[in-house]
Structures are given as C-alpha cells and as structure tokens.
Amino acid sequence: MPIEILMPALSPTMESGNLAKWLVKEGDSVAPGDVIAEIETDKATMEVEAVDEGTVGKIVVGEGTNDVPVNQLIALLLEEGEDESALEGAGENAAPKKDAKPEKAEAAKTDDKPAQKSDEKKTEAKKPAAADAEAGPAPTTGDGDRIFSSPLARRIAKQNDLDLSAIKGSGPHGRIVQRDVEEALEKGTAAAKPDKAEAAAPAAAPAKGMGADAIRAMFEEGSYETVPHDSMRKVIARRLTESKTTIPHFYLTVDCRIDALLALRKQLNDAAPVTDDKPAYKISVNDMVIKALALSLKAVPDANVTWTEDAMLKHKSADVGVAVAIPGGLITPVVRRADEKTLSIISNEMKDFAKRARDRRLKPEEYQGGATAVSNLGMFGIKDFSAVINPPHATILAVGAGEQRPVVVDGTIEVATIMSATLSTDHRAVDGALGAELMAAFKRYIENPMGMLV
C-alpha cells in the first residue's frame, strides 16, 4: 500500500502551510533524509525531508498551493515492488485545489470518521515534541476509539475542560482543529468532560470585538482598500490576544545613563580587527542590552523562569529572545546562553538572525523557547513604551531611544544621555519586588558596562 506523505506540523502553532516548491517529481526515488519540498509557514520557509524510502508515485498537492492544513495528504510514495496500479483510488478528494481558500478543506471530508485506519503507514516530517507535550495525548471516546484532533485543538479543549467527543471536526477526514474548538466555545455547544461535568462551571465565551460587517458599515463603501490577513498576521493577533487576556501584565520602568556604555561601544568597535576593509564586528547598543539583560537574569535567577499551571520552570541558562521586524510582522530569534557570549559574538549572531529572518529562513529551534525578550524601538525615536509578553516568556524588556536630558548630580544640573527601559512581567511568575531587583541589576550593568567584559 502506498505510503502517505502528509503536510507536517513544523511548529506547535502551525495549523496550515503553503506548499512553496516540490524538489522531487513523480517517478523520482527518495531515501530517508532527502529534501523533498519547501513549506512556507507563518514564520519561515522550511525544508521537508523524507522519512521513508520509495518512489514518488503521485504528487497530490501542487506547488504554489496555499493554506494546506496540517496532516493533509500531499503526496504518495510507492514502496519497493509496487507500481502505479497501487495508486488507484488512493488520495482521491484528499487535498484542496490549488489556491483554494482554507474553508474549502471541508470538501476533503467524507464523514466524521477518518478515511484511513490508524495502523496504516504514513510518513511526515518530525513534529516538535512541545506541541503534543502541552496538548496531552490523543483523546479517545468512551468506547476507546481515537478522537482525531490537532495538538492545538486538544490544548484549547484541555484548558477549557471541554469534551472533544462532542465537537464535530472540519479538518481533513473529520479532524478537529483549532477553529472547531473555538466555535464550540463561542456557541456553548461543547460540554465539560464527562468525569468533571458536575464540578466544572460552564465555559464562558471569549470576549469578541465588533464583527467585520459591523465595522465595514461604519465606513463609506469605496473609501478603503481590503487587505486580507496573511497567516503571520493571524498568528500574531491570536498570540497577542492570548497574552493580554491570560497573562497578568505588570510594568516597571528605569532610566539608565548610557554615556559610559556609548564610550565603551566606540572603543570596542574602533579596536575591531579589519580584513579587506571590513571590521570583524560592529557592536550595537542593542547587543549590549541583550548581554546586560542576560547577566541580570544570572544575577537574579528567580526571575529567569517560565510559568506553568503546575510548576515554575527555573532555567539554568540565560536565553534572550530579540524582536526582529520583518515584512508583515515580527519574529523573535533567541540568543542562547547570552550571558556566556562575548559582545562581538552576540553582535554577529544577531546580524545573521536578522538577515535570515527577513528571508524567512530561520529554523523553529532558533525562535522557540527562551524566558525573556528584548524589544527595541529606540532607533525609531520612541522614548519609552510597554511591550506585550511573548508566551511562554515571563518577561519582556522594552527599550527606548537614548537622548540627552538634564540630570541632577550632587546638587548640580548636567546633561546626560538617558535611555528608558520598561520591563513587562508575568505577575504570576515575577512579582513587583523581584522585577524591581532584576531591573536594578540591569541598570547597574548598563551604567557600568565594563562589568559585561569580565
């Protein structure tokens, strides 16, 4: 029987992807590890490797197809000894047409049960373990039959104590996906899990803003242009809404004098080795902020944490995410063990991250994880602001522009270069006093930057 190649879940938040390019054609032989396709997610373009050996018998989803749901059949692989006759009937009605809209994936359903048996052989790229770890194992009905659902759908259902068996799936072969659970929450059609039905309170529908039609009605027809949301903007909107509605934000601001930091930065850059008229590094203020925050987390380890419902995760290394603006949104690559790296290494690493982020070539492991992040809008002239925490981080540091301001030193007014920085904290994990201790450490490193070179 042909092996099914499915649209892989390349990150815990991925619900669908664009099949950008096939790197194989029908009739080609592939082996495990061969790159067979390029998939565009909301964050990056990823290469997909074959897991099994065989011959490409049929490409079901053509390259250039957008919004292909996770676990959708995209190709069939013939095993040794099989010929094209084995493809008869395989994969029919399993994939949306090229450029089909996401909602048309419902045409792939035949009934509420999966069309393939669970023991049939399938192949797809390895999924990040974090997706299933947060969502829990695949649930079953009272009769022991598996309920087919995405990890994100299971996680949302688990958080709201919903019975997945009461929800009708709209994904491929009746698979329950995120939108099905959210619709059930809004309509109140999904009951609490049977074993908790008596104790569980009815799930409250999430607060919603004005509908699209109501908003459009407020503006004269023809006075605006409609620009559909792309997948990145949808993910950003969902995650920021989740952050502000589920994480109790608390804010702490300090003003840091950065004259000594600017002088040290100039001294380090002037001393950079030069090869072919190109310096080996060029350190930015943001690079020094990353280092200072990482060292501060090591100095205040109780703030280097992640909140979960059953425990606090206290991290052993200081991994700092950095918000990078890209067309259509932003992404947050993570500088691992930033406290242990030199400023020149952090600088070159960030330049590489920024370039590959704009080219959508970052790997999932490069933008997932970390306990904190830096968002710097100082280069745009922003004096100060408060950033939204990026789950599962416990903090995020918003950095404003360095500007000359009058300050009082020993009773005398003088001019100094001041930079405002605001820490947003998840108050469940980092309360006011702990956050203040972290910001005090950050201010010490920024105002005494030689400490970052020790």
TrEMBL record:
Keywords: Acyltransferase, Lipoyl, Pyruvate, Transferase. Binds 1 lipoyl cofactor covalently. Residues 2-78 form the Lipoyl-binding domain. Transmembrane segments: none annotated. Belongs to the 2-oxoacid dehydrogenase family. Residues 84-148 are annotated as: Disordered. Forms a 24-polypeptide structural core with octahedral symmetry. Residues 148-185 form the Peripheral subunit-binding (PSBD) domain. PROSITE patterns: BIOTINYL_LIPOYL, LIPOYL, PSBD. Residues 130-142 have a biased composition (Low complexity). GO terms for molecular function: dihydrolipoyllysine-residue acetyltransferase activity. InterPro entries: 2-oxoA_DH_lipoyl-BS, 2-oxoacid_DH_actylTfrase, Biotin_lipoyl, CAT-like_dom_sf, E2/Pdx1, E3-bd_dom_sf, LAT1, PSBD. It catalyses: N(6)-[(R)-dihydrolipoyl]-L-lysyl-[protein] + acetyl-CoA = N(6)-[(R)-S(8)-acetyldihydrolipoyl]-L-lysyl-[protein] + CoA. Its EC number is 2.3.1.12. PANTHER family: DIHYDROLIPOAMIDE ACETYL/SUCCINYL-TRANSFERASE-RELATED, DIHYDROLIPOYLLYSINE-RESIDUE ACETYLTRANSFERASE COMPONENT OF PYRUVATE DEHYDROGENASE COMPLEX, MITOCHONDRIAL-RELATED. The pyruvate dehydrogenase complex catalyzes the overall conversion of pyruvate to acetyl-CoA and CO(2). It contains multiple copies of three enzymatic components: pyruvate dehydrogenase (E1), dihydrolipoamide acetyltransferase (E2) and lipoamide dehydrogenase (E3). It comes from the Bacteria. Its cofactor is (R)-lipoate. This is Acetyltransferase component of pyruvate dehydrogenase complex. The keyword Acyltransferase applies. It comes from Rhodobium gokarnense. The lineage of its organism: Bacteria, Pseudomonadati, Pseudomonadota, Alphaproteobacteria, Hyphomicrobiales. Residues 95-129 have a biased composition (Basic and acidic residues).
